[in-house]
Design goal:
The complex is a heterodimer of chains A (1056) and B (136). With 1056 residues, chain A is α+β, with helices and mostly antiparallel strands. Chain A is 37% helix and 16% strand. Among the domains of chain A are: 252 residues, no CATH class; 67 residues, Zn-finger domain of Sec23/24 (SH3 type barrels); 229 residues, 3-Layer(aba) Sandwich (Rossmann fold); 126 residues, Severin, CATH 3.40.20.10. The chains are: A alpha+beta (1056), B mainly alpha (136). The interface between A and B is medium-sized, with 14 and 14 residues. Chain B: It is found in: Membrane.
Amino acid sequence: MGTENPGRPNFTTRPTTTPFAAPPQTMTPFSSSGPVAGPEASGFRPPPPASQQTPFSSSGPVGGSNASTFRPTPPVAPQTTVPFSSFGPAVGAQPSPFRPSTPARFNDPSVPPPPTTNVPPTVGPFSRFPTPHYPSTPQFPLTAPPPPSRPPPMGQLPFQPPAGQAPFQRPLQQMPSVQMGSPPQSVSSGPPSVGVHQSPSDSSFPAPLPNSQTSFPGYARKQVSADSQGPPTQSPFLTQGGYGAPPAASSPFASQQGGYVPPPPVAGPHHMQHPGSGPPLGGVQALTEDFSSLSIGSVPGSIEPGIDPKALPRPLGGDVEPKSLAQMYPMNCKPRFLRLTTGAIPSSQSLSSRWHLPLAAVVCPLAESPDGEEVPVVNFGAAGIIRCRRCRTYVNPFVTFTDAGRKWRCNICALLNDVPSDYFANLDATGRRIDMDQRPELTHGSVEFVAPTEYMVRAPMPPLYFFLIDVSSSAVRSGMIEVVAQTIRSCLDELPGYPRTQIGFATFDSTIHFYNMKSSLTQPQMMVVSDLDDVFVPLPDDLLVNLSESRSVVETFLDSLPSMFQDNVNVESAFGPALKASLMLMSQLGGKLLIFQNTLPSLGVGRLKLRGDDLRVYGTDKEHPLRLPEDPFYKQMAAEFTKFQIGVDVYAFSDKYTDIASLGTLAKYTGGQVYYYPNFQSTIHGEKLRHELARDLTRETAWEAVMRIRCGKGVRFTSYHGNFMLRSTDLLALPAVDCDKAFAMQLSLEETLLTIQTVYFQVALLYTASCGERRIRVHTAAVPVVTDLGEMYRQADTGAIVTLLSRLAIEKTLSSKLEDARNFLQLRIVKALKEFRNLYAVQHRLGGKMIYPESLKFLPMYGLALCKSAPIRGGYADVSLDERCAAGHTMMTLPVKKLMKLLYPSLIRLDEYLVKPSTEADDLKIMENRLPLVGESLDSRGLYVYDDGFRYVLWFGRVLPPDIAKNLLGTDFAAELSKVTLCERDNEMSRKLMRILKKFRESDPSYFQLCYLVRQGEQPREGHLLLANLVEEQMGGTNGYVDWIIQVHRQVQQNP
Amino acid sequence: MGDLYVWLVSFFFLIALLALVVFQLMCLADLEFDYINPYDSSTRINRVILPEYILEGVLGAFFLVTGHWVMSFFCGPYLYYNVKLYMSNTHLVDVTEIFNMLHKEKKQRLFKLFYLVFLLFLSIFWMILTALEDHE
């Protein structure tokens, strides 16, 4: 796994069993160890007699290896122990136990040596891991003798007993009961030569190795010395090398190790990944692993859980898009548009029921493309858009042309369609169309078709923006109106769709004010409607005006808006009636409604009550209604808005409870978005609002859109998650959609058995572009159908899975307690890992190791982060109701990459970078230098930036050199940091900081990250800004990462 | 003789109720097969929900008043369920979530349908019995 299985394009080749067949032959000497690796016993068995010796030799080899590859590994001895630990149970005590374990593969060789009972066990462990590790196994014999010599220092204590064997047995037996035979494991594993070897290769887990070596130095030597055979053993190694390919023994190891996380010897736990399991036939290919594992266990006699926190997998590289599918089907659309939770569709319902994670797709139809990769626009002109007659699939790279180019076969329903004469082209000798290169729709997974008039119900609408602004006294006080007016004014030039763009404004407090901005006027005219029970729209024709015609009136209005209500003392809000009025105004055209809301709606329909102040309901079954809209009015309005193609974005600013749960409904069903600025003050949050509103207004927006996703026969999309409204069972209505929205959909198999080899997915988004053209954006992807659950795990995409899980969990919080949502997450993860474990439990003896597919190594981490994310975490006191709802609404729309960033934010140390002179290249480097989110990452002499994609927190260590603080903050560097704002000062350091922050922001433009400053020890700000977000830390009743892993692991092992 | 009329009236009540429930089911089925959009479907369904509830309540009261304890007892669970939905304000179908709720809504109405058919048989049985007794 660690190796990344570059070679595995073919699913079929995968079978793990075959791979080894070859190696055994080559390796006979090795066989003892080798056998382990090779799942197949057969290969090995023949050599038994020789092999027996060999095993020893192998052990010798270990020693020998020390010389060559292993040297660093004096720990080898420990390795040997390791196997024990894992096998512990089997080894139990004597040969007999052994046999059972070994029989399959090793029997002969290992058994004979039994003198050391351990030997066999070692073998066993290896067997589990097909990888080369075996060399270590031989070591066992060695270890047995040396035991006395072992240094007690490590967790090894159990082993220390002078009599080598006796001690061993002890541990072993214990192990089974404990489940985690970790101590032994640790000993064995940590030291395991493998780990050591890997260390060089593994960049990620560098630390552990050295430790391991040091810990067991005595061992190795003894072993070496003890083994006269050592030298012979080396040769076996070489043979192993043969497996991998490279002759050098060490090299093969390295390959294995790729995946590895070397565990620190002391802790005992480590991370072993076993790349080797799937070696291809003939040993041509590098050994690759089937799964990764993590030894978990407590050291007997100590309370500490035996996990080395450093060895745990962490997504420090951010979200990684799956590549294997793209390699297999190069014409698939890019993963930024469509990601599947697994790149392999199960072939039967029974298989899919064993896949406990969501089977789903995450679609971001308008994702921003980097320069040079824009989606090509295709205009078929007179030919019309080429679609399948039966299933309405659009022509795509996977269709095949036959009958000399006169027919094409639909890849989704296999129907033969006629090629229209305008679209006809001859086929060349290979059956390709000769004009293939000029046809982007036949070579690109993503294309945009210009839709003819059949795709229009009405003339394409112009981009239309309507602003509904709260002007009650609290809104005035916060300064929101001023920022909004300025921002809109500055964006007027960049609004998409010039010269057709339309614009309109209304404001409300206890009455509703409309503005006549007819182009013939010089000044806007204000009209007040105070009849809230029967709202009407005065002058319906002049309230929405063409921006280019009325530009000067609009500008005058925006300039005067802040001063107009400057002295407003009205504290009421007729939000509901204002909403109805906006609907009436916009229903002709549709468009985008931007709501700026500050005061809890108090008049007319849709008035809301203060909710959530009764503490007794929290944690009970009555809690979840607080997260649902209180008044059905909002749902009805949302439905009406969608019907008339109006998308709603809600900007909420209140410092008090403002019922985001109800207001957010408007955005939820209209494809909009909720922006929440609690306790808005223009001096502090103005920049954020300015940026985000500007982006909202100027980003490319698709109007009056509908989206449908089609897929092959036998597969069906069953549920959809995100911000949209379903127009029919599979049609998503999206009045306004843009690049920052992603939608998730789960699929299920309709037939018990799929007969097709490949499932095709086609996302089609029919929309009106701002330029007034009706277009269809089509993304097509092919995915293989597999019969093997292991393959599904191998192709799993953590990012997509976590996106799905987060949406499901958030939806769960709307119908039950927060705790249920967390349990739901945990259960799904546990079930998935348990099923995976069952896959390998028979082949490999797993002992106390936690195993997981390499592709899902970050899943537990993200699961934990999800449980600690704002919508789901804790209880009443942890997150305010409004923030919880706002975060929930936001997370329901986030594309995969942004969500991953939010769940596992980056923490980067800046002080060294600031002090040292640096170049542009350093800027890039520092962005990749992410630290794990644990308290230990924070050094009190440092300056750190924490970035979750929505805000930055600059953390000043307590003993940070004062000149840095002074340079960055100016003279008030000693003051309380909550009152200090960061701005560029006249020195190199400050400029550098601002430059790097700017870089960060440019890499992530969908939101503006406001910079919060906090000093170490500054409570409670530090706790709530930063410490509560260190997701790996244990705090306030939540698990730390280590505890979480142990908890998950325990549940995985329960009732298998 | 009066009893016979009671059964006749209840028979028509039940037929009316059945018609209302079947109508709702048809709307839901149409929605599922995309013959109708969710807006129309939910308005149509919501229009007849309250009449259905009231009719059912009246029927129960009618049985009670006319002294047919057993039948009014049978009407009880149905009535209780309706009142519960009404009190929790979930009796109307929600246009925004209608597709997610489709299965639940259909199941609920199918249950109602079977229950009404059961009541209908009971009342027909009593009606015939009464008619025969009257005849003798």
